[in-house]
Amino acid sequence: MFVYGTLRFPEILRVLLGRVPDMRPATATGWSVRALPGVVYPGLVADPDGVAQGLVMTGLTEAERRLLDAYEDDDYDPVLITLDDGQRAWTYVWKASTEPYDWDVERFAREELPAFVDRCRLWRRAFTS
């Protein structure tokens, strides 16, 4: 699975999955990781001039994949894309409107990550209840 936003952070994966799967850097030309209106997480959108930076996460179980599908809301579609190394990977593509600029992963890590981890922890508890 190609992850480009909050799912690239080990702290978030530990809360959601209880572990951090194997990951390696990857890029996807023709895609951009855009900021979204009113939220701190991003969305992946088709962009002929874009290059999305992210990670490929491998070794997910079927149960983990179902959990991640539930975690992503209805504004995301799971889509199989081709990465720059020629491999294909599933990812979550954003379907709604975006801001006209890219998401700032460093700013998220610096300013939003701890609160987002807490938010994920609450979501995970509710999901298993």
Automatic annotation (TrEMBL):
Q: Which residues form the Gamma-glutamylcyclotransferase AIG2-like domain?
A: 1-97
User: Does Transferase count among this protein's keywords?
Assistant: yes
Q: Which Pfam families match?
A: GGACT (PF06094)
The record's Gene3D superfamilies line, in alphabetical order, gives:
Gamma-glutamyl cyclotransferase-like (3.10.490.10)
Q: Which InterPro entries match?
A: AIG2-like (IPR045038), AIG2-like_dom (IPR009288), GGCT-like (IPR013024), GGCT-like_sf (IPR036568)
Task: Determine if Transferase is one of this entry's keywords.
Answer: yes
- The protein's superkingdom reads Bacteria
Keywords associated with the record: Transferase
What is the name of this protein? Putative gamma-glutamylcyclotransferase
Q: Per the UniProt entry, what species is this protein from, by scientific name?
A: Actinomadura miaoliensis
